[in-house]
Task: inverse folding
């Protein structure tokens, strides 16, 4: 299979939006099942589940899909390791640590009682948001469309029809 090396920016954003939606659905499920006073904390627990999905999403080992997230599968792109090794759970964790870490920070703020009840909670949440914004900006402006996670894991995202 010939690899397209041109950046797939718009498709990456679409896949990220789909994956973020899946992570949010994982976050909402425990909150929907919890009684009133626990809803916020259970939303935090669900966000931790969502962060777990975001962290390991590109290591999903379905042979017919290749290792990639559900969003990337639906959009027709996939990450690959520049060195040629297969995309594993560990490599997925390395390339997605920044985004999943930002969501995990958000989750932990909710688990301990909501970010407004924590000193500097708004600042911590804003910093986590800046990390995600910086990753998105790099995809948009980097000539190869690589973000920090791609650089750490030495990966690229390419077109890969279903």
Result:
């Amino acid at each position: 299979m010939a690899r397209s090396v041109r950046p797939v920016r718009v498709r990456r954003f679409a896949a990220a939006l789909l994956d973020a939606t899946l992570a949010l659905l994982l976050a909402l499920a425990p909150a929907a099942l919890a009684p009133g006073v626990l809803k916020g904390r259970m939303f935090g627990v669900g966000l931790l589940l969502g962060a777990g999905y975001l962290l390991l999403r590109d290591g999903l080992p379905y042979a017919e899909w290749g290792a990639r997230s559900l969003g990337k599968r639906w959009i027709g792109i996939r990450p690959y390791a520049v060195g040629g090794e297969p995309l594993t759970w560990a490599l997925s964790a390395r390339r997605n640590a920044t985004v999943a870490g930002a969501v995990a920070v958000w989750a932990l703020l909710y688990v301990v009682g909501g970010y407004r009840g924590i000193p500097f909670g708004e600042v911590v949440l804003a910093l986590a948001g800046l990390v995600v914004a910086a990753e998105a900006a790099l995809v948009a402006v980097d000539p190869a469309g690589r973000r920090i996670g791609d650089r750490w894991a030495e990966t690229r995202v390419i077109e890969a029809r279903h």
